[in-house]
Amino acid sequence: MAGRVPLAALGLALLLVSPARAAGPTVLVRYGFDDERIETGPDTFAVFRAAHGRVGLSSIFRRSGYRSVEIRDVPGNGDFSELQGYFPEERTGHVFAHFALLTARPEEELNIALAGPQRFRLGKDGIAFWLATREGRFVHVSDSIPKKLAPVRGFVWYDVDVAYDVEDGVYDLTIHEEGRAEPIVALRNQPGAARQRGSAVDVFSFISDPVEDVSDVTYFVDDVSIATSRDVTVPPLVAPGRRKLFVDAFAELRRTQDEKVRCLPAVSLRDFGVNWSGPLGARGLTLLEDALRSGSQDEAGRLPADDARGRVVRAAAQWREGCGTLDNGDATTALDRFERAAASAPEGRIYGLSVVLALLAAGRAAEATERLDAIAPEWADDPRLAIITARLAVVRGDVAGALEGLRPAAEAGDAAAGERYYSALFWDRRWREARDFAITVARRPGAAHTAADWLERAGDAAFQLGDAREAREIYEEAARSAPDQASLFLKLADAAFLLEDVESERKYRERYFGTLREP
Amino acid sequence: MKSLRTLAFVAAALSLAIFASAGSTLDQAVAADDLEAIKAMGPSVMPRLARMYGAGDEERRQRLASIFYRLGWKSEEAKDALIKDVHTPNQGLRLEVQWALGRVSNDASVVDVLLDNMQNDAQLLFRDKAACALANDQIHLTPAQKVHLYEGLIRALDDPKMDVRRIAALVLQIQTGQDKGFRFAGPPEARARAVEAWRQWLAEYRSQL
User: Fold this and answer.
1) Inter-chain contact A122–B208, Cβ cutoff 8 Å?
2) What's the domain count of chain A?
3) Summary mean pLDDT of chain A
C-alpha cells in the first residue's frame, strides 16, 4: 500500500527544506481509497453528501490502484458535497500535501483547501492553501487574491504537490498534467491564502462551491497524502476513524470545562446590594440590566453625577466585564474588576464571591481561602458557597471534603451543585457513586428536560466502570429522548466497538461522519 | 369546433385554477415562513415574491426580505424591490433589506448603496449593519465587482469618522483575512502607510482579473 501512493514529489519538496529542519518526514495521513482504510472519523475524514450529490468510491477513474473518490454536486440544492480530512495540527516546520485530481467538467467550480483550527475562512489559523478551478482554469488564492494558473482539461489527471512553510506562511506549488513531463504550474515562495505567518493546519477539504451553490461539478480525487518535515510520532487508531474513543475525547473536553473557573450567576438584586427594586426605580433597573448585558460603565454615565444609583450600575458593569475577562482566561484583570466593584459597592455580595473565584483562577488558593472565610457568613446556605468551597477543597486535594460540602445542595436538587458533585465523584474515579447519583437525578420527578444529559453522565460512569453493555443501555435510553444528540450516538459507537458489534459501531459513527460506501 | 372551444375553456380554467392554487400555496408558505416549501418551488418563484414584496405593508416586506436573505437566490426583481427600502427609517425592515440585498444580486449599485449607508447614514446602527452586509452577504460578486467593493472600503479607511474607519477595516479584514497594519485610531501618517499598502494590494488584485 505505502508504495502505491506517489511520494516522489514529497521527497523532492523535502530537498528544498534546509537540512537542519529536515528531521522527518513523517506521513500524517495517506489515502489511496483501495483498501479497507476508508473508515470515517475525527482522525481520518468526514463525508458530507449534498442532496442529489455524491461523495463515494468510484472505480471509473483512478490515478492509481483501482478506486478513487467521486465528488459530485448539483446547483441550487443549498448544500455542498465535501470530503473533509483531519490530521494532527502542524504549527511549525513544512507540511507537504499531495493529491491527484480529475474533473469531468472543467468549467464548473471546485475548491480544495488546507486549513487550521479556524477552519475555512481567510485569516490566521484559517485557510493556508486554497486551490480552485474557475471558468476552466486553475486558480490559487494567495495574499487574498485569486490568481489565475493554467487551463484545466477534462478527464485528465493532475498531480498536485504543495510544500507549505508554516512559520513563514508561504508555499511552493507544482501541478503536473498526466502525460506531460514538465509541470504546468511551478510556483515558489507564494504567500499563503491570507498572507499569515505561523498559520497552523490540521484539515483538508475537497468541495464543490461552498458559497454560491451554482456548481454542477463532478470530480475525482485519489492518492491523498499529507506529511510533515518534522520527526513526529502519529498515534495509532484505537478504533475505526479515531485515535481516541469518543467517550474519552468528550471526557477531556468536559474536564477542561469543569476546571475552567467562571463566574457564578447572579440570582437576585440582592447580589448587587439592592434589597428591593424601589430605590433603583424603573430607569435604574433598566440601566442595571443594560450594564449587566454590555459590561459597559457608560450606562452609569447616563445618570446625573450625584445620583447614588450610578455607583450600583457602575459596580455591576465592572463585575460583568470581570466575568468576561475571567472567561477569556485573564484572571488578573478579572480580579481587578471584581475588587473595584467590591470597593465601590461593598453591599453587593456577588463581588466578594467573584474575587475568590478570580484568586482561585490565578492560582492564589491561600488568599482565596482567606477571602472566602471572611465572606462565608453572609452566604449561609446558598449553594454557590458550597460550589466555591468544593473547588477550593479540590485544589487542596481534599475531594472528600468537597463532596461533603456539596452533597446537601446536590441532593436537594440544586442543578449547579449537582453537576459539580457528579464531576467531583467522576474525576475522583468514584464511578459507581457517580453513576448512581446521575441515575437518581435523571429519575427525579420534573427532571424530564435534563434526563437525557444525566443519563449520558450515568452512561459515562458505567463506561469507565468497564461495563460497556450497561453503558450502551443507558445511552440508548438517553437517546430515546434526545435522538439528535451527537455525543450520545458517538458514545454508542464506542460501546458497540467494545462489544464487537461492528455493524452498530459503523452505523452510529457514520451517522455523524458520513461514509464513502454507498448508502 | 364547439367541442374544441369547450376543451380550450376547460384547459384555460384548469390552468387558472393551478395558477391560483400555486399563488395561494406561495402565500401560505410566506405567511408560515415555511422556507423549505418555498425552496421546493425553485428560483422561479423570485419574481412573484418580489411582486408580493412590492404590494406588502412594512411588516410583510420585512418578512419577505428575511426570506430573500435565507433563499440566497439571485433575482433582479428582488433587488429592485428591496432597494426601494434601503433608506427606510423602519429599523427592522432596514436591517433585513441591507442584509438581503447582497444575497439576491451581484450589482455594483447594491455595493454602492451599502457603502454609502456604511459611511453616511445618520444612525450608527445602520452604518454598522451595512458594514456587516458588506462583510458577509455579498455572496454573488464576481472578482471584478469585488474590486469595486474593495475600492470603496479602502476609500472609507480615510473617512474622518473613526467608527467608519473601524467598520471599513473590519469588513476588509473579514473579506481578506488581513489588515495590512491599519489601525483605525492610529496616527494619520501610520494610517496613510497602511492605506497605501492596501492600494498596492488592490492594484495586484486588479491585475489578476
Assistant:
1) no
2) 2
3) 89
d(CA A281, CA A269): 13
Read off the pLDDT of each residue in B172-178 and give the average, rounded to a whole number: 95
Say which DSSP state A3 is in.
Answer: G
DSSP 8-state symbol, A209: -
Residue type, A206: F
Query: Are A194 and B42 within 8 A, CB to CB?
Result: no
Radius of gyration for chain B, computed over Cα atoms and rounded to the nearest angstrom? 22
A68: cell is 478513487
Which of A146-155, A343-352, B9-18 is the most confident on average?
A146-155
Cβ-based contacts of A121 with chain B (< 8 Å): 177
Please report whether residue A386 resides in a domain.
Answer: no
How large is the ipTM? 0.78
B177·A145 Cβ contact <8 A? no
CATH of the domain at A62: 2.60.120.200
Q: Which of A211, A89, A71, A87 is nearest to A141 (CA)?
A: A211
Chain A residue with CA closest to B105: the answer is: A212
Per-residue pLDDT at A44:
95
Range of the domain at A161: 2-233
Q: How far apart are CA B123 and CA B113, in angstroms?
A: 15
d(CA A13, CA A506): 37
Residues 6+ apart with CB under 8 A from B123: none
Q: Which three cell numbers stand for residue A246?
A: 469518543
* Rounded CA separation A373/A368 (Å): 9
Mind listing the pLDDT tens digit for each residue in A209-231? 887 778 889 999 999 999 999 99
Q: Do B178 and A122 touch (CB under 8 A)?
A: yes
CA distance A4 to A31: 10
Give domain status of residue A180, yes or no: yes
Sequence-distant (6+) residues with CB within 8 A of A132 are A109, A110, A111, A112, A138, A139, A140, A141, A146
Q: What nine digits make up the cell of A282?
A: 424603573
B197 CB within 8 Å of a chain A CB: no
Does residue B178 belong to the interface with chain A, where contact is any CB pair within 8 Å?
yes
Q: Give the model confidence (pLDDT) of B28-80 as tens digits.
A: 999 999 998 998 898 899 999 999 999 999 999 999 999 999 998 999 999 99
Residue B19 neighbours by CB distance under 10 Å: 10
pLDDT value of residue A53: 85
CA-wise closest residue to A354 among A397, A385, A393: A385
Residue A19 has pLDDT above 50, yes or no: no
Mean pLDDT of A332-340: 95
CA distance B46 to A353: 57
Question: Which of A52, A79, A144, A197 is most worth mutating to test chain B (most B CB atoms within 10 A of its CB)?
Answer: A144
Q: What is the pLDDT, as a whole number, of residue B1?
A: 39
CATH of the domain at A507: 1.25.40.10
**Distance between first and last Cα of chain B:** 62
Q: Show me where the domains of chain B are located.
A: 10-105
Q: Please check whether residue A93 lies inside any domain of the structure.
A: yes
The reply to whether residue A146 touches residue B201, judged by beta carbons under 8 angstroms, is: no
> Can you say how many angstroms the Cα of residue A14 is from the centroid of all Cα atoms in its chain?
31
Q: DSSP 3-state assignment of A237?
A: coil
Residue A20: pLDDT band (50, 70, 90) is very low
Residue A382 resides in a domain = no
CA of A420 vs chain B CAs: smallest distance (Å): 39
